[in-house]
Amino acid sequence: MTCIRPYLLMLVLLSLSGLFSAVSWAAVPVQVIQGSGVKLEQFQMGYFVDETQQMTFDEVLQQTFKISKNSISLGTHAKTTWVKIEVENSNATPFELYLHHPYAYHNRAIELYEVVDGRLTRERVLDTDDKNTLQWMYRGSAVFDIALQPHQRKTLLVKSIAYSHQWFALNLYDADQSKRVLLSQSTDISLLVGMLLALIIYNLLLFLSSRLKEHLYYACYLICGGYWIALSYGLIADVFEVYGATAFHGHLALGGIPIFLLLFMMTTFETKRKYPIEHKALLWTLIILVGDTLYGLFDIVSALQDSTTFAALMMVVTLSVSVSMLIRKHPVALYFLLGHGLFVIFSVLAVLFYKGEVEFNYINTHGVGIGIMLEALMLSLIIAYRIRSLESMKATQLDLQLLASTDPLTQLLNRRSFNTAASKLLEQAVQTGQPTSVVIIDIDDFKRINDSYGHAVGDKAIKQLTDVIRSHCRCEDVLARYGGDELVILMPNTLQKEGYIVAERIRQTLEHTAIKVDPGESVYMTISIGITEVEENRRDVQEAISRADKALYQAKNNGRNQSQLFTE
């Protein structure tokens, strides 16, 4: 009797085990189909992980299925997962149901088995690398039709074989809802990728015009991010019908995102020149990521599994460098830290989702894409700030160049700038054989105007003379304030007599132009002018100025208020 008890105990335990197994099998809730409008996107099902990846269908039927939602993520250790769904048609007429697997594009294979009263009635195998089995694939989604007879109950067993990470959602629709879902999918991803594409084109154009590396690195970051988003979230599968191993190897683009982000940081923060410690940290992280990406060319599964660790390393390093830049009061550090912080937060949620640690929802499944987009927008602000800074710097440089080359009172060229510009024009005149004339203008008795009315009126006189000269000169003529009250004009393609005509017009106009001293008082002034034509065989600026100056003094000696041509 004592010997029999262990056997009885064993039989009891086996019976209980079978009972629990049956309860577990029966515990999967039945999805009752009532009426015609069916849209089941949230329901309970059962799943079982085949760790051996070699179980037969009959062996799977004997396993215990764990109850879960119809959307799950199980990580990298559940590459072969079985799902059980119970459906029942409560209608008095036949009903056609459609099972959707919207993320089928990233799976290696999906198999569907229909069981009625414990008997296998239909099976289908969708291998994403076998074109002969893609009749159940539509725009990246696996769609299986299921025929239900009146009041019939079916058990649906779905086998999902993943390349790396196991995550999926299974939904049930009627014919009308199935069409609506398929037509509306990927809309959000198309919008996201479209925005990134616009930023890519804009920054490539900026790089071509400015040759600044940060524009190129940012554009490459966007290219990798946009391509990975389109691939990972089904847009490429939807548009180009790329599935299976080909699509899976495209995930190498994920490695390009942190690589180009690090290059962007190194260029924007100028770490090589200004921050050697931070530069070394970024550089070594960059080398590790490049190595992992190259390794992925030979073993992408291992590379993607290791990428989680390397991504964590990258996030720690980049956040540390960002904080360091913020402490050092770098002008764009706050923008970068904010954008990169959002990227890190959403990427961590995505990594936890792929590992099966957090629930299946839109934010977690699209975490990396959301993070890339938010960071891309913040980086675009940094790009805009850099552009404004460069434009401000260029404007300042132009202002300094203008101050260095022009006279502050008249805004005409100063003597040094005139000599440079005149030398270039005379060189061109030698090549073209065109005549060039030089005109020097001096205000008569300018000292008397300053002594009688003050230097403010003297400045008015010079500005008045400048305005009159501008009104009579061409845009190609070169004007300069050569001395205190002495102005000079270089006239390309102008004979001496033509220069004389222009000089007389200036003199006569100014002679009748009043300068207001007080509300009730005005003063008039006259000028003396010397004109010469640059010698054809000796195109020398200083010699031409000297000849025109001699003509000017001849006009002064002849009584002022006149124009005088140079004569030997």
UniProtKB/TrEMBL annotation:
**Keyword DNA-binding among UniProt keywords:** no
Q: Name one GO molecular function term.
A: diguanylate cyclase activity
Q: Which domain of life is it from?
A: Bacteria
Keywords for this protein: Membrane, Signal, Transmembrane, Transmembrane helix
What catalytic activity is recorded?
2 GTP = 3',3'-c-di-GMP + 2 diphosphate
Q: Which residues form the signal peptide?
A: 1-26
So where does this one cross the membrane? 189-209, 216-236, 248-269, 281-298, 310-327, 334-354, 366-385
Q: Which PROSITE patterns match?
A: GGDEF
Give the cofactors, semicolon-separated. Answer: Mg(2+)
The first-level EC class reads transferase
Q: What is the protein name for this chain?
A: diguanylate cyclase
